[in-house]
Amino acid sequence: MRCPAPFILKLYEILEEGHDRNQIVSWNKEGTGFVVWSPDEFSELLLPRYFKHNNFSSFIRQLNTYGFKKCATNRWEFQHCKFQNGNRHLLQEITRKKCEPSVFPAFLKASSSEPVGGVVDESSDLLLQENENLRKEKLELQMQIHQYKSLQMKLSDSLSQYLVNQNQFRRTC
Amino acid sequence: MRCPAPFILKLYEILEEGHDRNQIVSWNKEGTGFVVWSPDEFSELLLPRYFKHNNFSSFIRQLNTYGFKKCATNRWEFQHCKFQNGNRHLLQEITRKKCEPSVFPAFLKASSSEPVGGVVDESSDLLLQENENLRKEKLELQMQIHQYKSLQMKLSDSLSQYLVNQNQFRRTC
Amino acid sequence: MRCPAPFILKLYEILEEGHDRNQIVSWNKEGTGFVVWSPDEFSELLLPRYFKHNNFSSFIRQLNTYGFKKCATNRWEFQHCKFQNGNRHLLQEITRKKCEPSVFPAFLKASSSEPVGGVVDESSDLLLQENENLRKEKLELQMQIHQYKSLQMKLSDSLSQYLVNQNQFRRTC
DNA sequence: TCCGTTCTAGAATATTCGTCG
DNA sequence: GCGACGAATATTCTAGAACGG
């Protein structure tokens, strides 16, 4: 893994650029988490600078997605064990929680690693899959044909209409 | 389905609010599609008003996601059979394409839905029927294509013939 | 390998001929990548001089084909480890990515060409052939559709172009 | 065959909305 | 109410696929 997730990096940068915005958001005393002191100002001033929205709840959703936990009842303080002041190198260990359906990768791994031989059901399954594909492709073709049909109509209309106009023009020219 | 997808609705509204922005984007003549006449201005002025970005490519990605097709080689003109000027009620029929990461999910679904009891003959029988259907549908498609081919020929002939006449007309005008 | 790929060479030349076009595109500070500062001007002024188009997206596609990566979220900055200011001799190491049909197609191909796992039912074998034929026929259909699509495009372009000329003609007639 | 151009899709992250305990 | 999460849509970056020179 090369670099931290974009969201994590931006969050860290927001805290790095402290200045007088410490009254809006800052690391906690121990540097083991951060506190949003003023959700309103944070949402209106800082969020739009770093993200494509100004909703505090969306920000919270991202925090949860990356495994941050709210760790106080009376203020907006969040923690993640790998998110610490001064330890930028830990950031890349903070990943999305997405629990990967994992049915898939597992299947791929299995099919590629072990010889497919011997299991009769698999061949039938493959045929099913084959037919599934064919059906989908057929739908695609039908949609394409329909579109060209529309275009054709449009073209035909334009042309005939133009011919009419043109004849009138000739007469009056 | 209650109302159209957000993206579709916004797209329609952009075109509805024509005014003098028709030089940036507008319905085509027949109202069966739309043309982005100036991608630059469209990206800088209109996109940020309706979406959270100003990237033309992101806009294109959304169009493709909802099944729109580019239908001209020299302009940014797009069509979708359910996207027509004046037919707002059709918008809700425009939906996102299912991701179905292509072949795999289909395979998984098929294999999981079937009783794993190794009844190969039954599945083979089903596949036979499946193929039968596919063949019939394919014939349908071929007939359709033949029709459009004929129409196309006529159109092309008319147009070229007209161009010839027109040139003669100009000379003698 | 003798000389760099044409695209890579042109890209390098564009950056070499800096002048006052640095406001359109230039090397980054470190010379480890480049930034397109003004995609609009870049597309309209520079692309046509070096390539056969003026589409920014086509330019991006080429960059990706050769393994360049976008390395900033707020600007069009791209990097490739072998693309550095002053190191012209590295350019020939930048090559097109090989198709590498990924895991999937390979698996599918194998399954369709030869009966998997050796012992497969006769009926299944027939179905395999059936599907093979269906696939071929589908390709035929696609080719036909593509032909009509091309014709359609040309027709449409011709017609619209002609209408424009015609209007001009009328005014001056 | 390889490269370039175009159009569309895949895949990952981001944003929004709603629900559940 | 509240904190966490699922799911749908949106945005971004990269790749697939077809065609043509």
Automatic annotation (TrEMBL), chains A, B, C:
InterPro entries listed in its UniProt record: HSF_DNA-bd, WH-like_DNA-bd_sf, WH_DNA-bd_sf
Source organism of the structure: Aquilegia coerulea (Rocky mountain columbine)
Principal cellular location given in the protein's record: nucleus
Transmembrane feature ranges: none
DNA-binding in keyword set: yes
Coiled coil region boundaries: 124-151
Domain HSF-type DNA-binding as annotated: residue spans: 3-97
GO molecular function, one term: RNA polymerase II cis-regulatory region sequence-specific DNA binding
GO cellular component: nucleus
Protein name (Swiss-Prot/TrEMBL): HSF-type DNA-binding domain-containing protein
Keyword terms, alphabetized: Coiled coil, DNA-binding, Nucleus, Stress response
Keyword Nucleus included in the entry's annotation: yes
Annotated GO biological process: regulation of transcription by RNA polymerase II
Family per record: Belongs to the HSF family.
Compartments, as annotated in UniProt: Nucleus
Pfam families: HSF_DNA-bind (PF00447)
